[in-house]
Amino acid sequence: MTPEEILKGLYDQTLVGNAPAVLDLTNAGLDAGMTPETLLFDALIPSLEEVGARFERGDFFVPEMLIAGRAMAGALERLRPLLAETGVATLGTFVMGTVKGDVHDIGKNLVNIMLEGAGFHVIDLGVQVSPEKFVDAIREHKPDIVGFSAFLTTTMPMFKANINALVKAGLRDQVIVMVGGAPVTQEYADAVGADGYAADASTAVKKAKDLMQ
Ligand code: B1M
User: Fold this and answer.
1) Is 41 exposed, middle or buried (0-12, 13-18, 19+ CB in 10 A)?
2) ipTM greater than 0.90, yes or no?
């Protein structure tokens, strides 16, 4: 198979949620010398964007979104050790979670992988993380940065709720707050009083490094 055929296959098979084929094609791409970044940014992520577009148009429903997400997650696990390969010393500690009410985790996991690759020690609290759980984790791990991910317009307000909880716990001055997720914008991040925002995983790494200085 040519690289173009592998990318097209990955795109098409992610779209229909064929997890075994997606994993096979990911392996085929790596065997052919393609980089994990090429597989991610030229096939897997664009395919999930198309899934989202079809969902918005009413051509796809939640089950289709779910199986496409699972297929992508399988490939991401295969790529994780390759993306996270690093010789860099620990830059700092990053506590990360998807906010309460939100179960999306692929984007968060990708940011985590890239942060680990850049040398951050990442503590992932998972999905549906309540403000109390963020507060407890900050007390326990004393991270340099806490990251809130939200993927729904209905869960973005949890950023403010989380920040309010940090203020109430007397922790707001002790930790840098970063926010991100598909519907989030710089304006929204500024409005809720976050210290940083990034639109994608590689910008998130750059932003996190900048905020540490
Ligand atoms: Co959902 N979903 N979903 N979904 N889903 C979206 C997000 C949506 C945009 C689809 C659409 O309508 N086009 C839409 C949200 C609309 C909105 O509110 N604006 C939506 C909806 C509506 C829903 C449900 C409400 C559907 C329903 O039940 N009626 C429901 C909500 C469930 C809930 O959370 N309570 C739901 C459910 C699901 C599934 C469970 C089926 C599945 C999730 C699987 C999983 O994550 N384990 C799913 C999926 C797969 C999607 C889409 C198709 C793909 C998301 C994804 O993984 N993208 C998505 C459509 C889309 O995004 N175009 C959609 C790939 C990923 C690499 O990108 O997530 O943007 P992304 O992450 C990026 C950046 O956001 C950024 O970096 C990441 C990597 O580059 N980033 C950060 C993320 N976190 C960051 C943190 C940072 C910095 C950057 O600092 C802290």
Assistant:
1) middle
2) yes
pLDDT for residue 14: 96
CA-wise closest residue to 208 among 118, 126, 75, 110: 118
pLDDT along the chain (213 residues), means of 10: 97 97 98 94 93 94 93 92 69 96 95 87 97 98 98 98 98 98 97 97 93 91
Question: Which distant-in-sequence residues (6+ apart) come within 8 Å of 155 by Cβ?
Answer: 99, 100, 101, 102
Residue 190 has a pLDDT of 98
**Residue list, ligand 1 pocket, CB within 6 Å:** 45, 48-49, 51-52, 55-56, 62, 65-66, 68-69, 101-108, 110-111, 147-149, 151-153, 178-183, 198, 200-201, 204
Between CA 184 and CA 13 the distance in angstroms is: 28
Alpha-carbon dihedral of residues 194, 175, 131, 195, nearest 10 degrees? 10
HSE-CB for 34 with a 13 A CA cutoff? 24
User: d(Cα 197, Cα 26) in Å, to the nearest integer?
Assistant: 30
Angstrom distance (rounded) from CA 6 to CA 145: 38
Give the 3-state secondary structure of 88-140.
CCCCEEEEEEEECCCCCCHHHHHHHHHHHHHCEEEEECCCCECHHHHHHHHHH
Q: From the CA of 49, give the closest atom in ligand 1.
A: 63
What number of CA atoms fall less than 13 Å from residue 171's CA on the CB side? 24
